[in-house]
Amino acid sequence: MGVVSSKTSLAKARLPEAAAGYHRAWYPVCLSRDLPAGKIVGRDLLGSRLVAYRDAAGKPVVQTAWCPHLGADLSLGQLVDGHLRCPYHHWSFDTEGRCARIPTGDRIPSAARIFTYPTEEAWGLVWAFNGEQADTAVPRLPGADEGTIAFETDDRGERPWDTWIAISNGVDFQHLRTLHGIPEVSLPEHLEVNAGGIEFRIEGPYHLQHGRISGTNVFAQHLRMGGRDMFMLFAGTPIAPGRSTGFRVIGVPKDKAEGLADVRAIADRLGEEDAPVLKSIRFRRGLLTASDRHLARYFKYVEEFPCFAAPEG
Ligand code: FES
Ligand SMILES: [Fe+2]
Asked: What are the pLDDT digits (tens) for 98-133?
């Protein structure tokens, strides 16, 4: 057996993350309905603390929450004249993160900025891109847009696992049979790996599954079973290594809105069956066999995924 450096074994055990920040991808920050105009939301995400509010036009703004003066938590501040004002000495920041005012009249240091994340609002979620500029589109549900389906979005709370491990479920086709007891599962021919995502399609006479992983934290799918269309999107945002917060969107075609309760029951069941395994797993990329080839491709994709760490100010 060859010599394995501790760096290599660590990378194999956990795959990359913490040191270089988190993957450059879109992450839900909060539910749209939890961010009404005039409210400031603070959340511990992406190894830091983020602050979210709406600008004068109602567009969400997501920024790092630590004030560059002495580090106070800006989510405890106030919105004054469209600026985020620190609770401590009232330095104010604009929607691009520049310090716009220091009440003493002192010269504003050029480094007095907070990092501002690119944001989007979709599927009832406020999303932030972990990077200076978004290089992919906000995650989508295959085969659906917000105008054509009836959907509901929920905050699933904190979970004791890494998002990329939970998302591996989306291409772990054998666990659908073994853990979830869905007998009619088949494997896709191949996974299509494209910018910031992985997509696959399994189509049979009675069954369709069109799945898409975005980043390493979102799995969305369109399922057609027994002639019924269902849509599900599972998303997570890392808090710190081994901890994340979860969000879920479920939907049905608008003219079949009464079917939403069934989709909710299926998504609940899948989540309840996965949770004990994900909570207790000591993840390793272990002895993968031929049937794990799509999982192996996913792990390679995760390892190669670029990371970004926002400056803390
Ligand atoms: S710590 Fe924010 S203004 Fe002083
Ligand atoms: Fe699962």
From this structure: 999 999 999 999 999 999 999 999 999 999 999 999
Radius of gyration for the alpha carbons in the chain, expressed in angstroms and rounded: 21
- Residues having CB closer than 6 A to ligand 1 are 67, 69-70, 72, 86, 88-89, 91
Ligand 2 (ion): which residues have CB within 5 A? 169, 274
Instruction: Summarize pLDDT for 17-47 with one digit per residue, the tens.
Output: 445 899 999 999 999 999 999 999 999 999 9
Q: What is the largest CA-CA distance in the chain?
A: 72
Q: What is the distance between the alpha carbons of residues 86 and 80, in angstroms, rounded to a whole number?
A: 10
Question: Residues 6 or more apart from 82 whose CB is under 8 A from it?
Answer: 55, 56, 94, 95
Angle at the Cα of 38 from the Cα atoms of 37 and 42, rounded to 5 degrees: 100
H/E stretch holding 249:
strand 243-253
Ligand that lies nearest to the alpha carbon of residue 92, given by its number in the listed order: 1
3-state SS assignment for residue 223 = strand
Report d(CA 153, CA 31) in Å as an integer.
Answer: 8
Domains and CATH numbers, the chain: 21-129 (2.102.10.10), 149-308 (3.90.380.10)
Interacting residues of 280 by C-beta distance below 8 A, sequence separation 6+: none
Alpha helix (H) residue ranges in the chain: 6-14, 163-167, 173-178, 260-280, 293-304
- Work out which ligand 1 atom sits closest to the CA atom of 87: 2
Report the predicted TM-score, pTM, of the whole model to 2 decimal places.
Answer: 0.92
> Atom 1 in ligand 1: which residue has the minimum CA distance?
70
What is the DSSP secondary-structure string of 125-194?
Answer: EEEEESSSS--SPPP--TT--TTTEEEEEEEEEEESS-HHHHHGGGG-HHHHHHTT--TT----S--EEE
Contact 248, 154 (CB under 8 A): yes
Cα separation, 49 vs 240, whole angstroms: 11
How many degrees, rounded to 5, is the angle at CA 261 between CA 232 and CA 177? 55
